[in-house]
Amino acid sequence: MTQSGLGVEGIALSGTAGSHQAFVTLVTNADYAMGATALARSLRRTDTTADLVVLHTGGVESPALEPLAALGCRLVACDLLPLSESFNNRHSRANVHGAAPFTKGRKPAFHSPLDNFCKLRLWQLTDYERCIFIDADALVLRNIDRYFAYPEFSAAPNVYESLADFHRLNSGVFVARPTLETFDAMLARLDEPDAFWPRTDQTFLQTFFPDWHGLPVTMNMLQYVWFNMPALWNWASIGVLHYQYEKPWEKDHPKTAQLQPLNDLWHAFFTGENIPEIANLPNPPASSPL
Ligand code: UDP
Ligand code: MN
């Protein structure tokens, strides 16, 4: 038994699957539990037939999980991954920010890079045939169930600045098929001696699945597109809106004013009050109708 009581698997698959498909997110502290609450409410409004699974670590107290239970989420307790001490040191917040500084945006203080790797526990959810992982800092704005038919491993490009962004995927949304074989292979690859993954799970997944399949960019519309590439913005086509870097529930951050309409939308989903008709929202000024 480990200290958390979850055993060597590090996960407690309590409850039963209600579907062979699940949307999965991860929360390791109260801040991301707030994010997951808005995400779960947004998913419920799409009338999805899939389960909503929340992987949560011991860093989340039970009151923070209550809204998620009330939204009918399957709560799955898990530990952080069993990684070597040297791996954990290399991927501490201070080391990641020092070795590979973030120059384009700022990560909130409550973001721990090491916790990101815990997403890989999705591959342990073997009572599902297909899962769509979605970061807790995202909203689903229309029904996206058809993407469960996409193959492993599918993700959208990490587009928020320029054409060069198409070379990389963003791991905030991905389609995967849970199997323990894959999970074990991932753990072995992840913690090879001296391995350093500068953008954590994202760099790892892109390396592990070099021939990744593409999801449309609308399946992971990054918030910086709003001001950097407004021609790409079209509310009516957005499946997933992803608040990468600064979070909409931070009291104040360097881009609060620029992102006000997006922050307001997130708060509507978080509280459940005055959620607007998405297709009627105004696009950013320089957008081009699709
Ligand atoms: N996460 C978490 N706790 C952390 C860091 C990350 O629960 O301390 C989870 C959460 O689901 C989050 C995701 O991992 O949405 C990835 O982190 P984040 O969204 O902050 O990264 P970004 O999208 O800004 O690159
Ligand atoms: Mn994110």
What does this protein structure show overall?
With 290 residues, the chain is α/β, with parallel strands linked by helices. The longest helix is centred in the N-terminal third of the chain and has 15 residues. Strand 2, helix 1 and strand 3 form a beta-alpha-beta unit. The chain has a single domain, classed as Spore Coat Polysaccharide Biosynthesis Protein SpsA, Chain A, CATH 3.90.550. Helices cover 27% and strands 16% of the residues. It is built from 9 helices and 11 strands. The model has no long low-confidence stretch (mean pLDDT 95). The strands form 2 sheets. An 8-stranded mixed β-sheet has the order 1-4-3-2-5-8-7-9, sandwiched between helices. Strands 6-11-10 form a 3-stranded mixed β-sheet. It binds uridine-5'-diphosphate and manganese (II) ion. Uridine-5'-diphosphate binds next to strand 2 and helix 5.
